[in-house]
Known about the structure:
The chain is of the alpha/beta class and 293 residues long. It has a four-stranded parallel sheet, sandwiched between helices. The chain has 14 helices and four strands.
Amino acid sequence: MSLEDSTRWDGLELRPDDIVISAPSKSGTTWTQMICALLIFQTPDLPAPLTTLSPWLDMRIRSVEEVHAQLAAQQHRRFIKTHTPLDGVPTHPGVTYLAVGRDPRDVAVSLHHQSHNLDRGVIATLLGEQPPEPTPADTAPPDVRSTFLAWLANDDSPVKNLDSLRGVAWQQSVAWSRRHEPNVVLLHYGDLSRDLDGQMRRLAQRLGISVAERTWPALVEAATFEHMRQRADDLVPDERQPIFKANRRFFRTGTTGQWRAWLTADDTAAYFERLGALTTPDLAHWLHHGSLG
């Protein structure tokens, strides 16, 4: 059961001032959408739910025709969410492409928790598929370490599975190779955590958006993780009906380094060996530390 289909980009007419937000799952996509919404509308009181203002184009719950029509009708500057890597998104010289990085180990932990928060029965129904069989009550779900090791070892092609270390490394490698292009902006989860005000100002400059100084404090506060958790019902990516068991759990902690509580020294060594085979040293350093670390 897949929620996403990258071919839904086919036929979409891009506008010169569009913003495309491309990131692996659980890397800060929704956070970046929220920041873009605050910069574009310049108020914490957004005119509609985030998923309406910034549709997730890949998501299959709504027909592609409906989503394309929604985007065509938008009068504000458009900012479109995707988990498709940049090499799978149409290129346009005026479009700004935002790629978001995060320590892959934190991505794996977040994917573990999100997997248990997804309502797969609802998702299957919305996709017109057969709901999965209930898990037997005596079957314990895997712990974080077990999930991490499976994520680490998964060798599926990224074309079929982006939610593995191989998939994350491939998607980030594509973005990293384009980091010097004038219309490609790299953001990092760690940088946003350490200096949200500074990173929002940097992004506003790259997007050509002017914000009055008196407006900044309210926008930055609205983009904090705790504030977004409080507004979870307006911000989580759902359509038609909630696809999460608990919306607030989508914004679970916003912290980094939780993998330390689960991984052994051997696990960490295996992770670095695998990542080293999939990325260059400069990309690996950025993924782990961001630009400010």
